[in-house]
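Annotated sample (chain length 308).
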Amino acid sequence: MKDSVVVLMSTYNGEKYLAEQIDSILAQRDVQVQLLVRDDGSSDGTVSILERYEREGKLKLEKGHNVGVGRSFMRMLYDAPAGEYYAFADQDDVWMENKLSEAVKILKEKEIPYLYASDTLLVDEDLNEIGLRFEKEVMPYDLLNTIFHTALCGCTLVMNERLRAVIADRRYRPSEQVFDHRCHDTWVILAANIVGNIYYDSRSFIKYRQHANNTIGAVKNPGLPDKLENMFHHFVNQRYKRSRSRLALELYKRFGKVMKSSDRKYVKILIKTNTLKGKVRFLRCRKFRRISGDSLPVLAAKVFIGWI
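Output written by the structure step:
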């Protein structure tokens, strides 16, 4: 009997590439796929495409109002039916036919809450290859590094039921305001760090399409203009005000009792950056300077303007 994987897809105005992605999900080898889609208030032809697939019995569709990508995915994960494994899917990629089966091979051996992630093959709109996202080494994805830089790509994540059960437990659910400035994948990666473990696969089984309408994308080897544009966007957007310290506070509220003592120590330092004493203590901590990748003057400026 084939292993069962519940695939969760959130859509929003994605008519251009949607059918190609759905077909690649339904064509997965050696697993039984149950595709659940929540449309996040599309105004183009996305819903019509999804309704056609639903009439053919190929997916189950929920039509909702626009709540944003993070909230949309997490609501699906909380409400997902019982299954063995769970995977996130973007609306505009193309999956290789062994994407899920390779993840399941790894997860079947795990007895604790476990998360699988892989590299991604970046492609352009026409699926011409750009290259692997991480050609050398993936960025660190431990708890503290993930708070500052989410390294793993949400569309590669596959988790076992043990991890989903923890994340869906009401005791561990964050406030939805977290997803104003963080996506679903960040919270799932953080939870896996705390209550279980993560397996990273340096291979890629997904063509991660980069195009002008990406909700979330990955720029390969971003240059200075890209970095400056990203910094300006975060600086002027109030949603990102103290985003890391607010995320740390939410983690501490939900998982503080089960965190490793070393992680708890640093999370508490990060939480206190809303006070002058806390800012100074944060800046004196070499670990945060290393993780942030910023020089001390730059990091100090970020802390004092409330950007941490």
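Annotation: The chain has two domains: 3-209, 224-304.
Annotation: The beta strands are 3-11, 31-40, 60-64, 85-89, 94-95, 114-123, 129-132, 158-160, 197-209.
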